[in-house]
Amino acid sequence: MRVGIKTLGCKVNQYESEAIKENFKKNHHEIVNENEFADVYIINTCTVTSLADRKSRQYIRRMKKINPDSIVAVTGCYAQVSPKEVAAIEAVDIVTGTNQKSKLVELVENYKKTSSSETENVVEEYEQLCEYEETGIITSMESRTRAYIKIQEGCNRFCSYCVIPYARGKVRSRAVSDIIREAESLIAQGFKEITLTGINTALYGTEEGFKEKNPIKEGLQGIEIILDELERLAGDFRVRLSSLEPTVINAEYVEGLLKYKKLCPHLHLSVQSGSNKILKAMNRRYGREDYLDIVRVLRNFDGGYGLTTDIIVGFPEETEEDFKESLDVIEKAEFCKVHVFKYSKREGTRAALMKGHVSFEVKNRRSEEMIAVGNRVSQGFFQDQLNTERTVLIEEYIEEINCLTGYTENYIKAYINCESLSFEKLLNTFVPVKLTELYKDGVLCRLNP
C-alpha cells in the first residue's frame, strides 16, 4: 500500500512519525508525501490548544478528499484526549491513542482485510498509559545532519493550563540500552547532532522501578544517565537537549550538566511567565528568581550560553504589572529566541475554570509587544556574540544568497558565504567560524583557518 503520513505538533510527534514510517517500510509498504494519492493516510495529531484540534480535523478531511477510498487512521494526542469526537468525523476509519503507534501497521492491514465500514476505536484511558511503548530503533531521518531520539514519555506535573498529562499518561522512561543502541546506529550513519526529546525529558528515570530495570552508574540521576553514556561513545557528534522543565530542575541540577563536553551550550527552558503570581496559578512550582538562578549558572559557565524559551501572555488574571514582569525576565535572561503564545482556553484543564480571563484584544496587544521585545533581545544577544569563535554544523546550501547555513553550538543561525568554497564537501561537517555581523535571522560568519 501507498502510505502518506501527516505530522502535527511537537518534536516527539515528529520522532514517532519517523518510527511509523519505518514500521510500514519494514512491512513492504511505500511511503509517499501526505499530499499525494495514497491508499492509507496516517494523521499524527496534536491537542496542545483548541487550534491544534481544529487543524487536526482539517487535515483528516483533506486527506480523505485526495482519495475517498483510502483508509484514514488518526493517532496522537487529539485522538487520545477526544477519541469519540475524532471517531465521529465521517472520514475516519481507525482511531488510536498515544500508546498504540507501533500497532498501526497491524491495525491498517487488518482493517483492509476485513473491509470494515465501522470506525475502529482502540484508545486506552490515560490512566492505563503506564508502560513505555518501544516503537523500534530509528535508522533514518528527513534531516541528513540532525536526529531526534525519544527517551521519555508522559508527565506528572499537571500545569493548570496543560492537557498533555491526559494525552500522554504517566511518566515512563525508555530503556537506556535502547537509547544508546539507537544513538550508535544514527552516529554510524553519519548524523552529527543527536537531540534528546520527550514529553518532559527532565523526568527521565524518575519513575518507580526504573533503576531495577536499568544498570545505572552510581551518583547519576535524570538526564545525566543518558548524557554520561553518550559522552563515552566514539564518533564526531554533539548532543542537544530539546528542553528541560524548570518545574523539575533547579540551578544545582543544571550545574551538574556542564561537565559533559559533547552537550551543546544551549538549553530550551520554558519560563511561561515572569510573574510569581501567575506562575503559582499555572502550578509551575518555581518562582522567577529560581528561573533566573538557572540562567546565572549557565551564563557564568559560558557568557554566550544559548537560551530559548516559551512564554504565555494573557493567562487568567494576568495584569499589566504581571505582563511587565514577564517582559523583565526576557530582558534579564537575554534569550536568543522567545516563542510567544497567547493563552488559549483548553477544556478539561483547571485554568479553563478560572476567573478573570483576559480579552482577545489585550492578549493580541501583549503578544505583539512581547514578540517585539523578544526580537530586540535576540538581536542584542547576537550582537554580543560578534567576534567570538564558535562551531557550526553545516546543514544546507541556499543558492539564492550563495550561503551555507547551520547552527552554532549555542544555537545561533549561521550564514557562511560560499565564495571559493566547495559546499558539497562541507555539508554535514563541523566547521570553526568567527561571527562577524548581524544578518537575516542570525549572524554572518567566516571560516576560521
TrEMBL record:
GO molecular function term, any single one: tRNA (N(6)-L-threonylcarbamoyladenosine(37)-C(2))-methylthiotransferase activity
Keyword Nucleus: no
Class of the enzyme per the UniProt entry, highest EC level: transferase
InterPro entries with a match to the protein in the record: Elp3/MiaA/NifB-like_rSAM (IPR006638), Methylthiotransferase (IPR005839), Methylthiotransferase_CS (IPR020612), Methylthiotransferase_N (IPR013848), Methylthiotransferase_N_sf (IPR038135), MiaB-like_bact (IPR006467), rSAM (IPR007197), rSAM_horseshoe (IPR023404)
Domain Radical SAM core: residue ranges: 141-380
Cofactor: [4Fe-4S] cluster
Domain annotation MTTase N-terminal: ranges: 1-113
Substrates-to-products reaction catalysed: N(6)-L-threonylcarbamoyladenosine(37) in tRNA + (sulfur carrier)-SH + AH2 + 2 S-adenosyl-L-methionine = 2-methylsulfanyl-N(6)-L-threonylcarbamoyladenosine(37) in tRNA + (sulfur carrier)-H + 5'-deoxyadenosine + L-methionine + A + S-adenosyl-L-homocysteine + 2 H(+)
UniProt keyword annotations, A-Z: 4Fe-4S, Cytoplasm, Iron, Iron-sulfur, Metal-binding, S-adenosyl-L-methionine, Transferase, tRNA processing
PROSITE patterns in the cross-refs: MTTASE_N (PS51449), MTTASE_RADICAL (PS01278), RADICAL_SAM (PS51918)
Highest taxon above the source species: Bacteria
EC number per UniProt: 2.8.4.5
Protein family per UniProt: Belongs to the methylthiotransferase family. MtaB subfamily.
Known function: Catalyzes the methylthiolation of N6-threonylcarbamoyladenosine (t(6)A), leading to the formation of 2-methylthio-N6-threonylcarbamoyladenosine (ms(2)t(6)A) at position 37 in tRNAs that read codons beginning with adenine.
NCBIfam families: MiaB-like-C, MiaB/RimO family radical SAM methylthiotransferase
Protein name stated in the entry: Threonylcarbamoyladenosine tRNA methylthiotransferase MtaB
Protein's organism: Aminipila luticellarii
Gene name in the database record: mtaB
